[in-house]
Amino acid sequence: MEGRKPTLGFLAPLLTNQGHNVVIARTRREALAKVQETHPAVIVLDFPSVRFSSRRFCSTLREANLDIPILMLIPPGAKIDRSIGARAHLRYPFSAKKLSNRVTRLLPTPDDDIIRVGEVALNIKQRTVVRGDRESSLTPRQAGLLEIFLRHPGEILTRAYLMKQIWDTEYLGDTRTLDVHIHWVRKAIENDYKSPVYLRTIRRVGYRFQAPKVLENK
User: Fold this and answer.
1) In the list 15, 70, 158, 181, which could disulfide-bond 86, CB 3.0-4.6 Å?
2) What pLDDT is recorded for position 7?
3) Confidence at residue 216, expressed as pLDDT on a 0 to 100 scale
4) In this predicted structure, what is the pLDDT of residue 214?
5) Taking the C-alpha atoms of 166, 169, 175 and 176 in order, what is their torsion angle to the nearest 10 degrees?
6) Is the CATH number of domain 114-216 1.10.10.10?
7) With respect to CATH, is domain 7-106 assigned 3.40.50.2300?
8) What is the pLDDT of residue 209?
9) Interatomic CA distance for residues 78 and 203, integer angstroms
10) What span, in angstroms and rounded, lies between the C-alpha atoms of 120 and 52?
11) Are the C-beta atoms of 11 and 92 separated by less than 8 Å?
12) Where are the domains of the chain?
């Protein structure tokens, strides 16, 4: 959904050239009509140029029970307002490839390919994790470790359990390898990996992935 020039002549060709089918709307009324008519897989909101309230638009979609992933494009230095309801954010400036990749990540995929808990979405096959406006690639074991946490949100997982699941060993004499992998997973999903919010250490036991919706209720 684009607004005034020059983005009108800039964004659509970028996505079209990357193989995406693009429908353009300039006003909220037109955008809602296009959504009802075309049933888009992803909505791209160009925040700096749209002529309507993004918050009101997203709220209208929710009220209509239209669960369509929204990618919000934001200007440099702008603060991300996650309460609007966009699933992902992309900050200007960006390349055509980065824009296309972000849209592709939001496209529907088989349930077995994507695990999503709150803002954290792991693509198992591609071994990539998206949280907010950040996307990171993971090694096979990092992805496997994160997958375990996402499949058990809110549960305390012991070091022994994690070592057995990822390294197929019951040896706990040296768990530095696990600690290193936890470190890299935190760097991929946390705002500050030194003060983790999502993946927390449970002293003398193991770790727990705290689902965002649980955090909000505290």
Assistant:
1) 70
2) 52
3) 39
4) 39
5) -60
6) yes
7) yes
8) 95
9) 37
10) 28
11) no
12) 7-106, 114-216
Predicted pLDDT of residue 215? 39
Nearest-5° Cα angle at 93, 90 to 94:
65
* 31 backbone dihedrals φ, ψ, rounded to 5°: -65, -45
Q: Mind giving me the DSSP string for 15-57? A: HHHTT-------SHHHHHHHHHHH--S-EEEETTT-SS-HHHH
Do 7-106 and 114-216 agree at the fold level? no
Q: 10 Å Cβ neighbour count for 94? A: 14
Dump the DSSP string for 93-134: S--HHHHHHHHHHHS---TTTEEEETTEEEETTTTEEEETTE
At 28, give phi and psi (nearest 5°).
-65, -45
Q: Say whether the peptide bond before residue 93 is cis (omega within 30 degrees of 0).
A: yes
pLDDT value at residue 50: 59
